[in-house]
Amino acid sequence: MKRIVIVGAGPAGIAAAAALAPSTAEITLIDEASRPGGQIHRTPAPGLALDMRRLLADGHTAYEKFHATIASLHNRIQFQPETLAWNIHGGEAHLATATSLASIRYDTLILATGATDRVMPVPGWTLPGVFTLGAAQVLLKSQGCLLGDNVVFCGSSPLLYLAALQYLRIGGRVAAVIDSTRFTAKLRALPGLAAAPGLLAKGISYMTHLQRAGVPIIHGARVASINGRDRVETLTYRTVGGVHHHIVCDAVAYGHGLRSETQLAELAGSTLRYDPVFRQYVPAIDASGRAGYAIYLAGDGCRIGGAEAAVLSGSIVGQAVATDLDLKTPGTTAPRKLRRLYRFQRAMATAFAWPQEAAGTLADDLIVCRCENVTAGDIRQSLHLPIGVTELNRVKAATRCGMGRCQGRVCGLAAAELTASIRGRANAPLDRLRMQPPVKPLPIALAGSET
Amino acid sequence: MIHIEADVAIVGGGLIGCATAYYLRKRGRSVVLLERGFVGAQSSGVNFGSLRLQGHHLPELPLALRSQTLWEGLEAELGESVEFAQQGHVHVAMSEDHVDITRRFAAAAHPLGLSVTLLDRQETLRRWPFLTPDVQGASWSARDAVANPRLATPAFARAALGLGAAIHEETEVTEISHSAGCFTLRTATRLTVTASNLVNTAGVWGGAIARRFNEPVPIFPAGPVEIITEPVTAFAAPVMHVVDGSILFRQTNRGNILFAGHPRITVDADSRRTRVPPAKMVTNMARLATLVPHLRHLHVIRTWTGIEGYVPDMTPIVGGSETTPGLFHGFACSGHGLQVGPALATILTELIVDGGTQTPIAALSIGRFQKQVPPDPASLRQEFHDDVLQQKPTT
To answer: What is the mean pLDDT of chain B?
Structure first.
């Protein structure tokens, strides 16, 4: 019997599993969380009575449908929760749980590893009380926790409005939403956004709801600094006209859209290609998600497309696997809608711009790599050395930038932008930090516990 | 086309190449160094950082001692920190056999000028109480040291540049010809170089240059397994090294625990990108937790390896070519190039400038492979994984 291993139990991974469920293949689904859902359909911790219908509102239908799909797959797939896939090597996925290590051989590997926040450093971003937008949502959905009593949502991301609105729904207070992309840029993106009119309408309704609730929404303003002695006390933003405003707040949720989590795909041997719109290297795939021999990719982990696109790409990958392994499964998914959704997300990247130009202006004393306390000045200085430091991996060797616990997952893209701007190559493909295992920290205590 | 003429052309911008460029400039020779990638980006930059004298192959010990003297003055010489720290190395004996090895080495090293202190089990545990109570004893060499390999080679390159050496990164040599006492090097860029001396410091890839001049060597690639944890509060100053090399570790300036252990693994010299296999990583994690039980609470955050050039007698190839006047070799350092590198570069400089060196180097000659009986492969089993030894030598 063929064994299919799927990493990631979010919308893409589950859709791939559902597409393959009618076949005879053995399907193993691996996820770090204790329950399936990924980031978008994350469930409350056991014992926590959180009103998900109220929290998710119009998103609740998709949430219910997703968890119904999982319930229907319950007896069909082997689900390994609380399991980290820390390496792919020699036709095996290498796994770690809280108590043991294991490896699982696969005939086919489907990676649906999702995305995390993309962050441009700003003065004060390492203060306690500053979270990424994604972290704010994780805390809310899984623990029912608010970041603070008076929270600013800022940066540039479609998640800004959704995350702020979810705060309001659950009784939180939103001090302001500060969106660094100008409203005119959003208007310019409209033709592309029209590729998915339903999603566009949703986004507009989030803004309207926030405005009606009296939340100040500031467009085209940059966060100048997040201030406080021991933790967040105020936030300063600068409007287009150069005027500085100060807001009192006790927490900040911050982000600039999403970045694909490509580490496992890189370790599995897929080819990475530079995407000039998202300004990130992503694994090369064909129209059905094939990324090399026996390797398939779906969802935001290879193309930022959002939850709806993740489901479609997961189904398409599932069907491609079925075809390639000669498995009998019903159903076909038209790739046309998926292409439209990707077009929409590329337009979103314009409507919510990653502030690449800010990288060049980061102050010398600003920390870029928070694991290793490497500042923008350290990076500049290394690149101004007469020899030996000419690209990002050499910057890492000279400064330790990207050498810490997160291995550049947080600072890598900002460091790449800064490096490119110093080298005067901001319009060329950026450099990329090369990946080495493990993808996340691996406890030494697990060695000797192999099962 | 750009054409450069120099007294000496160096191929390979690792530690030995960059250091040779530096020492040659100090002696007034004009130098051009060509590096396919970036200086110090291959095995010179990704090794353990060990500057170990203890346990050194005895015939090489005079060379190693000369190199240690250079390391001791290197930061002052180059004007940059290379995180040199002379905190000593401890060889930890886990069996009576290991104790014997430390005793024999201490006795043999003493007349050559290296002082090694033998410690019994009780004293070992008194000094380093974090070690497993299973230790049987240790030996201690205060002159052993560490440096940060990421910093050392670029520091040499910058110092050489400061003295007027021409260093070209991202410049791959595609063809070397030799006629009328002159070497001509063509590259993949628009650059050509002519020089009356050629220095081959191309690491494992140096085998191809030697072959080009009809002196093939039985060189093969292999890599160390380097694993590093998150940073923690300082607790261990010296390098701790189990006598058989099965596990060794040090704490970096930043606080990370860097650990490694034999046998060495197969690496891909053609792609120049290579990774540590998970099984090997897990084996070494378990060995570390056995040696220092409290480290089991740490997390591994990264692993890496490098592409090193080895020959079966585990001895570098250093000296003049035996086929081609004006050609000099300094490669195949067999896993300990960082420590001996500065001395090898000095010797290459002396050979080129003075026509000879005071340091005995007959045992390092490239001609030895014509005469020598190759060592019994069984003697290398502790050093390499079986699949490394099963590779066909790249001669």
So the answer is: 95
**Residues A146-164 pLDDT 10s:** 999 999 999 998 889 999 9
Q: What is the β-pairing status of strands A26-30 and A78-80?
A: parallel
Q: Are strands B256-260 and B226-231 parallel, antiparallel or unpaired?
A: antiparallel
The answer to whether A407 and A441 have CB atoms below 8 angstroms apart is: no
Residues of A in contact with B45 (CB under 8 A): 397
Buried b vs exposed e over B373-385: b needs ≥16 C-beta within 10 Å?
eeeeeeebeebbb
Q: Where are the alpha helices (DSSP H) in A194-273?
A: 197-212, 263-268
Cα–Cα nearest to B51, from B97, B78, B15, B76: B15
- Check CB contact of B161 with chain A, cutoff 8 Å: yes
Q: DSSP code of A187?
A: H
Q: Mean pLDDT across chain A, nearest whole number? A: 93
| Contact assignment for A444 to B157 by CB distance below 8 Å | no
Q: What are phi and psi of B23, to 5 degrees?
A: -65, -35
Shortest CA gap A409–chain B (Å):
12
Model confidence over B345-382: pLDDT tens digits?
A: 999 999 999 999 999 999 999 999 987 666 666 678 88
**Residue that is written with structure tokens 């014509």 in the block:** B370
Please report which residue ranges of chain B form alpha helices under DSSP H: 15-26, 43-46, 61-72, 74-78, 96-109, 121-127, 149-162, 206-212, 278-291, 337-353, 368-371, 386-389
Residue B198 phi, psi (nearest 5): -125, 130
3-state secondary structure of B16: helix
Domain A3-116+259-348 in CATH 3.50.50.60? The answer is yes
For residues A128 and A232, the answer to whether their CB atoms sit within 8 Å is yes
Using CB atoms within 10 Å of the CB of residue B306, give its burial: 0 to 12 exposed, 13 to 18 middle, 19+ buried. Answer: buried
Pick the CATH number of A356-422 from 1.10.10, 1.10.3470, 1.10.4030, 3.10.450: 1.10.10
Kindly report the CATH number that applies to the domain delimited by A119-256: 3.50.50.60
What is the spatial distance between Cα A387 and Cα A382, in angstroms, rounded to a whole number?
Answer: 9
Q: Return the SS3 of A48.
A: coil
Are B286 and A447 an interchain contact pair (Cβ–Cβ within 8 Å)?
yes
Q: What is the CA radius of gyration of chain B?
A: 21
Q: What does each C-alpha distance from A279 to A122, A416, A419, A433 come to in angstroms?
A: 19, 10, 13, 13
Rounded distance between C-alpha atoms, residue A360 and residue B343, angstroms: 42
pLDDT of residue B387: 83
Q: Do A448 and B286 touch (CB under 8 A)?
A: yes
CB atoms within 10 A of CB A328: 8
Q: Is A202 exposed, middle or buried (0-12, 13-18, 19+ CB in 10 A)?
A: middle
Assign A199 to helix, strand or coil: helix
**Boundaries of every domain in chain A:** 3-116+259-348, 119-256, 356-422
Domains A3-116+259-348 and A356-422 share a fold: no
Radius of gyration of chain A (CA): 22
Residue A94 tokens read as 């290498």
Mean of pLDDT values over B275-302: 96
- B342 DSSP 8-state letter: H
- Please calculate the CA angle A372-A377-A382 and round it to the nearest 5 degrees: 85
Contact A387 B161 (CB under 8 A): yes
Cross-strand pairs, A155: A179, A255
- Beta-carbon contacts below 8 Å between A and B: 105
